[in-house]
Design a protein that fits this description.
- The complex is a heterodimer of chains A (362) and B (289).
- Chain A is of the alpha+beta class.
- Helix content of chain A is 40%, strand content 13%.
- Chain A has two domains: 74 residues, no CATH class; 203 residues, no CATH class.
- In chain A, β2 and β3 form a beta hairpin.
- Chain B is α/β, with parallel strands linked by helices.
- In chain B, α1 crosses α2.
- Classes of the chains: A alpha+beta (362), B alpha/beta (289).
- Chains A and B meet through α1, α5, α12 and α13 of A and α3 and β11 of B.
Amino acid sequence: MYVAVKGGERAIESAHAWLAEERRGDKSVAELSIAQIREQLKLSVDRVMAEGSLYDPDLAALAIKQSRGDLIEAIFLIRAYRTTLPRFGVSEPMNTGAMECDRRISATFKDLPGGQVLGPTFDYTHRLLDFKLAADGEVPEAPTRDAALGDVPHVTEFLNQEGLIEEAPLDDTPPPDLTREPLEMPAERALRLQALTRADEGFTLGLAYSTQRGYGRNHAFVGELRIGTVAVEMDIPELGFTIEIGEITLTECETVNQFKGSKTEPPQFTRGYGLVFGQSERKAISMALVDRALRWEELGEDNVGAPAQDTEFVLYHADNIQATGFLEHIKLPHYVDFQSELELVRKLRREAGAGRYQEAAE
Amino acid sequence: MSEYNFAYLDEQTKRMIRRAILKGLAIPGYQVPFASREMPMPYGWGTGGVQVSAAILTPEDTFKVIDQGADDTTNAVSIRTFFERTAGVETTTATSDASVIQTRHRIPEKPLTEDQILVYQVPIPEPLRFLEPRESETRKMHSLEEYGLMHVKLYEDIARHGHIATSYGYPVKVEGRYVMDPSPIPKFDNPKLGDMPAIQLFGAGREQRIYALPPYTKVVSLDFEDHPFEASKADQVCGLCGASDSYLDEVIIDDAGGRLFCCSDTDYCTGRRALGHKGPAFPGSEAAA
């Protein structure tokens, strides 16, 4: 005879123990160290930091190890940790013009002050499996050159001097904080950018791609893409001045978008902007395209009903931690709801069998 | 887990949540936006309820967690363990011993008292969501008390099926003002929402909303004069305890598709069996037939 199942607690404990064992895998294979993940799976680490909204390569590497390489799970671990951290203050706006660039390219000008610097990129590699890596993995040293000194000006500044691109006036309004205030509509650009920078890379990529294929097309050129380190400065009230508290790696993308003008704006180039922790070019470019698509209203463009133009749609569905949680919660028991649906369907079928529908049809 | 604050959340966050709760209690049925935090369990798994519980628990509280009416379903176990670790509060499975009860999808069978708080986990707080996907629109509809769309939906159900085809998460109107989603409880539980002596708090973490029903609030399930609301359940008695007044789960017990109906509220069922009640699943019992 059926006796209500007890022992959920023991089942959970055993499942977790099994998980820990699976995480370690075959014990005759050396265990991964945090440093190995941090150094050799850097782009995974960067993605976890970006979407986890916490810049800490060691913690991100730990999260990747703990999550068995499931990056969304790793991002979740970082987010959950992040909420427990006290908030000391806010940094000064970061000056990406003073970035020490590892990579800096422009698709709109053949050459420009500061030069084109390819940096460590997959671009132009032939995607052939390198079986040498499976054998030893030792690499020859890359050639070096002294870095150019001085600030690297933004490409959009040159267009700005001619008045060809929309103005981006300085704005000292403190931006809202998505992690401390509930997201409410309409969302201003600062808030949208904040949501996009921690948005799921795949979702952002898909949306950006959809604009390129005509769902809210905005004719983007990569005006500039730069990756490098930038100093983080903070004003310390007790000291009365600003000090540098560290430096972080950022990827910044500025798109230059064609714009024929609207009822309210003259013909000019317009801007899309992407800024992401770490080396995350695909994400930064995607972010810039989606940012530009979401700006249709302030530029007086038509809403063509494209998904990438719909702020509510984009912002409410871009967060992979929210999405994955809600999606996967349907694994939880739903006996009660299902039971009530069972009763309902049985009732509807009984009534259908009784010929109600036939009568109605005659 | 001593490195975390009592009940996990820091005091500033708890204060922010308590403010939202107080606002919710002051405007029954109104969805208060709150800055929901990322919790160490996934969104959609009760983070709203967990944050509300964390904000209201005191060290003297006795805490009970149910999912589908049962204390021993996996997620209920997980949430109970979380608060045992982070708050060190006493926990119980007995409805009457608990001062705070967190629930998913059920209201306990045993009537609650003025000394108790019932915390609901809410997946989609917006009763109009599946009629209008835009939050900016639905908020406007609530502020204008524009509920025509909901009535049209219910009417269309009647036109198609002869009755309202919503069996859980059945919408209610609170104090004649706000239409509210009672969370996915079976409509069998709807009549318990109104005039309840206990405080009822609803937390939706992913959707960043809190709403509330103060004690003895008037709550009416939406219906029409000629099609009055009807609470329904399986037309059976509990196979284990013989109860005819409790909500029943249907369990498949053998390969031939044999069924057993039993109370979804495990504490209620256990209590009745301890008093000697036996259902038809026991040969020779009072209800066996």
